[in-house]
Design goal:
Length: 68
């Protein structure tokens, strides 16, 4: 992955994995920050619509959750 944001179905999107990689953070910490933001925000329903759960295969061949 080399671009933070890509176009998909005419929308700019990224993934939690790409955010972690780009900013040198641990993926689990990015996931926790996103979940915390959704759970505490006044307009959490709107934020919840902006994210979707996905999976990817980690280098350890383990299936792992990500948020896009």
């Amino acid at each position: 992955m080399n671009e933070l944001v890509i176009m998909k179905n005419q929308q700019a999107v990224t993934s939690s994995l790409q955010v972690a990689e780009t900013f040198g953070k641990q993926h689990k910490d990015v996931l926790e920050a996103i979940k915390a933001k959704i759970n505490t925000a006044e307009n959490s329903a709107l934020l919840n619509q902006m994210f979707s759960k996905g999976t990817y295969k980690a280098p350890t061949a383990k299936l792992t959750q990500c948020i896009t």
